[in-house]
Each structure stands twice: as structure tokens, then as C-alpha cells.
Amino acid sequence: MSNRSDEELMRHIREGRKEALEQLYDRYARLVYSFAVRFSGDEALAREIVQLVYTRLWSTKAQYDPGIGAFTSWLITVTRNISIDVLRRERRHQNKVSIDELDDAPGRSASNDPETMLLRNDRQKAIATASRRLSEPQQRVIELLYWKGYTLQEIAQMNEEPVGTVKSRLHQALKTLRRHLQGSREELQG
User: Which DSSP string corresponds to the chain?
Assistant: First the structure.
């Protein structure tokens, strides 16, 4: 299969042949990684982007049309789009405040006075209610990651799934929780 054209390899990927994906990975992983490092400025994110690019090639049955342009141009476009998505996600995560930080915020005492306990109790109830809106796999990834301390890679290995799938599930779960908790906060303030 090593003598196959990129177009043929993409056709084999759509047919579910893993060796075709492996061949494309061997041919272009360095190119994708180099682009991702330059675009993101972060080697860890670049490795994640490479994984997401090849996961997308495998899972979405992406269509490459040789009549439009070179395969490498198409692959770099896919990489660029995924890089933008990853950087946007990272920016959103950097702007969020964790629940633990709320308890330690200036002007808040970590005491056990009735008002603080009531607010903490309300927050815990809101989180419990919001978590019921998650699918079972989303609840499981939240539990394993945040409450039991497993890494994303360990969770992926437990479920025999790609890390990208676990990350996507986590991202969707956090988005659902955030949306519900913001709605709850607005109801309390309004």
C-alpha cells in the first residue's frame, strides 16, 4: 500500500482500512505537526491537533477532491480549521473561573457562617441539577476526571476510545453544565 496515491489512500480510509490512515500519518504527520506548532505556538496543543486531524480523517470520511488542489493543501486547510477550533476552546477555558476559586474569592470567607453555607449548598444543588442534563458517558467522564483523578488518556484507555473522543465528550459536558449553571444564576439574580 506504500505506493498508493493520497487519493487512493483517502478512498481506502473511507472503506475503513486502518493501514491507509497509518500510511497517510507516516507521510504527513510531520507536516501537520509543524504547521500546528507554528499556528498554536504550543507543542502540547500541536500534538493534540495532529491527533484531531487524523481522527477527523478517519471518523468523518472527509472528502478530498484532487480536481480542486493538492492533497497537502487540503490537509493543511483541515489542520488550520482544527487549530482554530482548539485555540478558541483554549481561550474559552482560560476565561473561566473554577468553583474552587469562587470559595477563595476576595471578600468571601471560607467560614461556616449560615449565609456562606446556604450559598455553598445552593451552588451544589445547581451543579447536581445541571449534571442530570448530561448523557451517561458525559457524566462518567466528569466523574472520572474531576472526582476520581484519572487523566484523559487513562479514561480513553478504560473505554477503549481515542483521547480526542474523550476530550470532545468532556468539552460538550462542560458546555452543557456552563449553559445550565449560567441560566440558574440568571434566574437567582432576576
Answer: -TT--HHHHHHHHHTT-HHHHHHHHHHHHHHHHHHHHHHHS-HHHHHHHHHHHHHHHHHS-----TTTS-HHHHHHHHHHHHHHHHHHHHHHHHT---HHHHHTSTT---S--HHHHHHHHHHHHHHHHHHTTS-HHHHHHHIIIIIS---HHHHHHHHT--HHHHHHHHHHHHHHHHHHHHHHHHHHH-
